[in-house]
Amino acid sequence: MAAEETPIPESHSCDAHAKERSAARNQVRTPPLLQVQNLRVEFSRRSTSMFRRGEKFAAVNKVSFHVDSGETLALVGESGSGKSTTARAVLNLIRPDSGSVTLDGVRVDGLSHTRMRPHRRKVQMVFQDPTSSLNPRMTVAEILMEPLKIFRLGERESWQKEAAKLLELVRLNANDLVRWPHEFSGGQKQRIAIARALAVRPQLLVCDEPTSSLDVSVQAQIVNLFLTLRQELGLAYLFITHDLALARHLAHRTAIMRAGEIVELRSTEELFASPKHAYTKDLLSNAKGTRG
Ligand code: ADP
Ligand code: MG
What is the pTM for the complete model shown? Predict the structure, then answer.
């Protein structure tokens, strides 16, 4: 496996967890669940006062990282740093201009919709705004059964039962199956969106700021749900956030992104104890300042 091309390598990890996982991986020589190498995604500029419209720029540039099975990698950066674009490339929702995305040993960047199908199940996404990710014209049962239908998982007769199980997995009640999305609070809607993502039994969840539209008290509950699901299902997460405290709480390793590039990627413990890159230091001291 090629070294990750980050300016500050994630060597000498003191995170025992990470060590165990990478030792296990080296022994059996299985590839990481997700490997992103040298990713670059270009866009034409939207018109702003600063730039000429249509000019090309790299929203994501030289981005490399991996996520092991069961591992949580946080991708932290300010708004516009390229986090969501990276996520979309990982899910093959956009085609990178260069670089590669490898899922479970299979290169998926640039695969057609049909060829992507068998790999799509391995990785699912949870978005920031649960209201817009749930179809308002479908009941909760329909929302949860749709992926089972699309991927033809199990018999038709088993779908209802499976949907009930999914609701229980996210700590909602099976009685909620007959209800509509608008009947739920923001936190409950996000639980439903998470249940939907889990329907196809993915190994990796890409979560793009999944708690930032929620009230602070609800955020903690959803974060705890992510932790519980990690334990119960052995899920891996690519967890995108601009919240350093959240990354620290959840992630085994943390990548800091700025202007399309990862400037530092190390075990979360090390990164917070002794940030190396000037930008990471800035972020950490700013976060301390705002906490008061
Ligand atoms: P983040 O998720 O970190 O806030 P994004 O990945 O959404 O950042 O965006 C990175 C940069 O790419 C931003 O400057 C954004 O305006 C730009 N961008 C994102 N999507 C598009 C697009 N479809 N067309 C043009 N520019 C885009
Ligand atoms: Mg974003």
Answer: 0.89
